[in-house]
Specification:
The structure is a single chain. This protein has about 475 residues and is α+β, with helices and mostly antiparallel strands. The protein has 5 helices and 23 strands. It has helices at about 5-25, 30-35, 40-50, 55-70, 180-185; strands at about 110-120, 125-130, 135-140, 145-150, 175-180, 185-195, 200-210, 215-225, 240, 245-250, 270-275, 300, 305-310, 320, 330-335, 375, 380-385, 400-405, 410-415, 420-425, 435-440, 445-450, 455-460. The strands form 6 sheets. Strands 1-23-22-21 form a 4-stranded antiparallel β-sheet, with no helix packed on it. A 4-stranded antiparallel β-sheet has the order 5-6-7-8. A 4-stranded antiparallel β-sheet has the order 9-10-11-12, with no helix packed on it. The chain binds calcium ion.
């Protein structure tokens, strides 16, 4: 490379500066179109940049896929067009059993109403229906807790008293749950990424929602998923109450190699399902209570980044969805003490295309639990909810999962713990679906990173 003269460099910098100024002051150019939708568009742009650390594979993957798709356009994949997934696989792995991936496509027959209840929010990471058709929702980046009224789409002022968070990258205010005795206790539980000495952790805290719904009072942190790590990715962060009034918390393994190996270690709360009391203490029936070298709060381990959790309405089993690397997102049934294999085994590959641990996908053969289902290519799964309602009978006990990178909601049909059907909903909306909730009256609610909240109901039943 030849030397660039200083005067030329200065000239170039000046030119760039002037052009930038011109762009800023110039209305009506194509560039302005994105700023016109001010908040939403800006947020989305930030989101894309932000999540690109986690999901750089989206772009690479998509371009790779389209190349492959062109090359293989004549050859049908092994499962053919019957699968909801039509893109070619990105890995060479074979499922351990036939129903483990690419289930046959199903289609909802009920005519649906799809409406946007409210817009202009940020990344609504977590939602809970605390009162009929009223939701407490978290805003990941601004760390606000808001009340959304599904009847009229109104959004409250931010509730005071929420915790300080680290909102870099995937961090921020994450999930929200209410105590089973909320009507009396008014206790609200939040998860968030917290700065502590040595880095950040996934934390759980609780506070009392004031009668006038303007403040969380006496907020206190009850649990920190240690060790802290100097990173801002893979916090996990979902919480759900069980029948006994205890909490399941999911964590992530903090993404980087080698910290992610701590998912296998029983002396770290990274890459785990954790089972704690409402005071943050380990539940005394937890599987590793007797093991002096293991942390008492651990319920299961070997997870990557668990972004969705719910109980199967019929079996009562705890199901989780975890974000895979490039492909290999997993649906798992959680049993106490089980090891789900990450990062020793995976149905995915590194974002770079390299194999993980030399490319072992079989879980059971290696002594780990097989996922009930996995996606290849990725479905970028986020929040999820079982449809435990009869408002749309054909959906009863189906599982709905938000998809971030391919922008759709996944519906899976489950029989005897096997995935026998898959459908993709709202594929035309172009939204990153972050969390899913089913209301008491059977509406499917979906939040997006673009600041929308959707309500999906059987036609004629959603609006009055
Ligand atoms: Ca696994």
């Amino acid at each position: 490379m030849g030397k660039v003269s200083w005067s030329r460099l200065t000239f170039l910098l000046m030119l760039i500066f002037v052009l930038a100024l011109a762009a800023c002051g110039n209305g009506g150019t194509s560039e302005e179109e994105s700023t016109e939708e001010s908040d939403t568009a800006t947020e989305e742009t930030e989101e894309t940049t932000e999540e690109s650390t986690e999901e750089p594979e989206e772009t690479t993957e998509e371009s790779e896929e389209s190349e492959e798709a062109t090359e293989e356009s004549d050859e049908s994949t092994d499962t053919g067009s019957e699968s909801a997934e039509t893109e070619p696989k990105v890995t060479e792995f074979e499922p351990a059993f036939p129903e483990q991936t690419r289930a046959p496509e199903v289609e909802t027959e009920t005519e649906l109403d799809v409406e946007v209840v409210t817009e202009g929010l940020g990344v609504t990471w977590g939602m809970v229906e605390f009162d009929t058709n009223r939701l407490l929702v978290t805003q990941r980046d601004s760390a606000e807790l808001l009340i959304v009224n599904l009847e009229d789409g109104s959004v409250s002022e931010p509730i005071q008293g929420t915790p300080e968070v680290n909102n870099e990258d995937q961090g921020g205010l994450l999930d929200v749950a209410i105590a089973p005795d909320f009507d009396e206790s008014r206790l609200v539980f939040l998860t968030f990424s917290q700065d502590i000495e040595g880095g950040t952790v996934t934390a759980v805290g609780k506070g009392v929602l004031s009668e006038d719904e303007t403040a969380l009072e006496d907020f206190e942190v009850i649990f920190q998923a240690t060790p802290a790590y100097e990173g801002t990715l893979h916090y996990g962060g979902r919480i759900i109450f069980d029948d006994e009034g205890n909490l399941f918390l999911t964590t992530g393994e903090r993404s980087d190699d080698p910290i992610r190996e701590r998912a296998q270690d029983l002396d770290a709360y990274l890459g785990k399902v954790i089972h704690i009391t409402p005071d943050g203490e380990p539940v005394d029936t937890n599987p590793f209570i007797e093991d002096e070298d293991a942390l008492d709060g651990i319920y299961s381990y070997g997870h990557r980044n668990i972004q969705g959790v719910d109980f199967h309405p019929e079996t009562g089993d705890l199901w989780i969805v975890e974000f895979g690397p490039q492909a290999g997102d997993e649906l798992n049934i959680i049993e106490p003490g089980n090891n789900y294999g990450w990062p020793i085994v995976s149905y995915g590959i590194e974002y770079t295309g390299e194999l993980i641990n030399e490319g072992i996908s079989e879980h059971e053969a290696q002594g780990f639990v097989e996922p009930r289902y996995y996606w290849d290519p990725t479905s970028a799964p986020s929040g999820m909810s079982f449809y435990d309602n009869d408002a749309i009978p054909e959906w009863e006990n189906n599982l709905f999962i938000g998809g971030l990178a391919p922008n759709y909601i996944v519906r899976v049909v489950i029989e005897d713990d096997l995935i026998v059907g898959e459908e993709r909903l709202l594929t035309e909306e172009g939204e990153r679906f972050r969390d899913i909730l089913v209301t008491e009256d059977g509406a499917l609610i979906a939040s997006t990173d673009g600041g929308l909240i959707y309500r999906i109901t059987a036609a004629g039943e959603g609006t009055e």
